[in-house]
Every structure is written in structure tokens, then in C-alpha cells.
Amino acid sequence: MAGLAILLAGCGDDGILARLLLKPGHIIIERRPDIAYEKLFPYYVELCAASQFRSKLTGEGGIAGHAVMYLKGACREEEAPYPQLRRCRRAASSLDDPEHGAGISVSRWFKNVNWVAIPGYELFFAGNLKPGERLTQKQFETLQQDVIAQGIYKGIAFHRYPGATSDTDLRDFLVKDGIGTDFALQFARSVFCARLPVTVGMLEQVIAFLNDKNREYAEGEADYNWSVWADNCMHTLRNALAAANIWSPLSVRAIKFLQIFNLAIPANEFVNLAELMTGGDIGDYRGILDDGPRRDAFHEFHWLPTRQGALLKTLPVHEPNDLYDTKFRLFTLQSPFLMGKTQRAIDLLSDQRFVNLDANLHYFEKKYAVILAQHDERRDALASVRGTPFRRVERLYYNYIRAQQDAVQSMLDRITSSDPTSTEPVTK
Hints:
Layout (H helix, E strand, L loop, with lengths): L1 H9 L10 E2 L14 H4 L3 E7 L3 E2 L3 E2 L5 E7 L1 E3 L8 E3 L13 E6 L8 E5 L1 H5 L11 H14 L19 H9 L12 E7 L2 H20 L13 H10 L13 H4 L6 H14 L5 H5 L2 H10 L9 E5 L14 E2 L8 H10 L7 H17 L9 H4 L4 H26 L12
Antiparallel strand pairs: 1-12, 2-5, 2-10, 3-4, 5-8, 6-7, 8-9, 10-11
Helix pairs in contact: 4-5, 6-7, 9-12, 13-15
């Protein structure tokens, strides 16, 4: 831990630290899921790692960057006295729709809550700025006024942060930390996201976890105290997804020595989720039974994380930009000699199957077909007589694979049909 602290605090861009940063030449900077995606998938979670910001006016953020999450289908509860979520009132297919979803950001300066909900995709990522439009001080101030007028930070109290004149100076907080960190991410940061379609039942579990988290601090006696080691922005987001059995949770209560095994680094967790989405073995149902989160997700939600629609995207810092350095950077915690996490991110972001919707659907169409072709229901005519502990789960599993194959075919048909703008979402 001491060595890591020295590394984070003392290395320059040309030293060891440089080997832990993705470089702009490694990948194509901007990759977005196709707009047709929104018409096919009514609910998804998007876990994002955002790079360090470098303001030309207020200085730099932490080298490890920031973590956020976007939830399609979960919306900010406007009437709540502090940040809470609700199910959106409709399955929106337009990013401009106020009922599309909400972004979730944890701040080290929040005192009586853990996270804030930002309404809408465009505000959360682009700060409502149009492509090619110059980011100026005037636009920055206009956005600040809009957010205050919307009451997005209603009910939030702050720890006293460096330079703050009071614990409730929202305007000063937005200038120094909120804009570019909680929302308008592309004003200041490169953003890497792993987007994973989920069921409505899974989304409800994520909402319940996050609401309980804020309720714990807003209505309880304890304050939220951010910790880089034990309870940072990524711990909350990872554990929210764990509440829906997407993966296992990370402890925020381990003793100090053991907490090092529960570190949560934004870029690393982005890669971890990307690997789960793209590389999980869905061809062996017995292996699924041996993996706790996948087994529970399969039985409770009839869902597996390696699936069609699991895509990656990267968004660059907005340009032209008068306020922030637009140099590309993203930190990953790894051996500076093996470079495993960096290389894995490069590999995944370079694979069309995981960044392009059409390639992704065709990939899973073939994958499901291979699984079903290798399955011979008559391979053991006496199985029903002899008995097997896997008989029921085997039947459930192959029914699931057939349902996913049908869903993929339906999506491909809609994309290639003469009316691809059908508003009825297709998901399984």
C-alpha cells in the first residue's frame, strides 16, 4: 500500500506511471453503440471509468480518475427530499427523452448521502453540449445555473472541501468538482463504458440497493466518509451491480490489512466487467452452476452476463475546449512489466464483436447455434431412468439458449427490415 501511494503521488508521465496509462494511439478514441441499440434494449446498466481531469483554471484530479454508472430505465425521483431513484415511466428509445435514464456518481465531498442522480443521458455525458460546439466559460456557467435550477443536488450536504467558504456552497462545489465529475463528464474526461442489457427485475434490485445506500446516510446518524481504499466511488457501483447478481460484491468493512484485497480501481473494474460480458463460457451449464453470481442470476432472472448487446464504448474529452486539457489518459492498476489490464482493454476495444451492434448480434447468433447443434437430447436414452442431478438445470439451460437465439434473430430481422424504427423493444 505504501509503495502504491508513492507511485500514485510521485511518478511523472515519463516514468513508471506512463506504463500504467492507456495511450491515444492504442485504440480508436470514439466508439458508440449504434442508435438502433436503444430501440432493441429497454434496460441496461453502463459502468464507466473516467480519466483524470486537468482543468486549466482549478488544477488536476486524482490520477486514478473517477467511476460512474448510467442506468437506462431508472430515473431520478424528483419529489424525494434527497437523491433517490424510481423506475422510468416508459421504455424510452431517444437519448433526449427525460424518461430515458439517470447517471449515478459518488462524491468524496458528500456528507449525508453517498451518490447523486443526474437526469438524462445527454446531461450526464455531454453536458447538453452539441458535437463540435466550443466549450466556453459562458456555457459552463449556464450549465451550472441550469443544474441548480433543476434542484439536482437538493437535500445534499457537503464535507468542507479545500477552498470552500461553507458546507453548503453548491455553486462553488459545481465549479471545482461537480461539473466534469458528477455530470458533463466529457467536458473534462475521456470515458470508457461497459454496457450490459439487464432484465427489469435486475434493474429494480440495483435501484433498491442505491436507494437504501442513500437512505442509510440521509436518515441515519452516520455521515458518509469517502475512502480511497475502503469506500470509494467504485465500491458503491460494483456492489450495486452485485445486488443484481451480475458479479460478486467487494467488502467496504474489512480490516485495514485485508482491505487491500478489496481495492476498486475505476479502469480495472471497467476491464473486469468487459471481460465478464465478452469472455464468459456460456457453453457449459455445469460451469455456470459452480460460479455463484452466474448461477444465482441464471436461476433468479433467467439471465447470463455474457450475452448479445454487451458492448463497449469510448468517449473523448469534448473539443474544442477552452477549460480543460483534452489529452487522452486512463489509469489501470497492474504490473508495469506485464501490462495485463492495459493490453486486455486494447484487445476488447479493438474487437468489432464487442463495439459494433451488428457484429455483436451475428457473433451471438452463431454462438447460440453452435451450442444447440452440439446438444443431442438423445445421447443418453436411459438418463431419465438412471437419474442425474443436472437434468432439470440442463433443460432450463437449453430453453434459455433457444430463447436467446430467438431474441437475436428477432433483433437482426428488425434491423434489416424496412421498418427498423418499431418502438416495441425486444429483450429476453
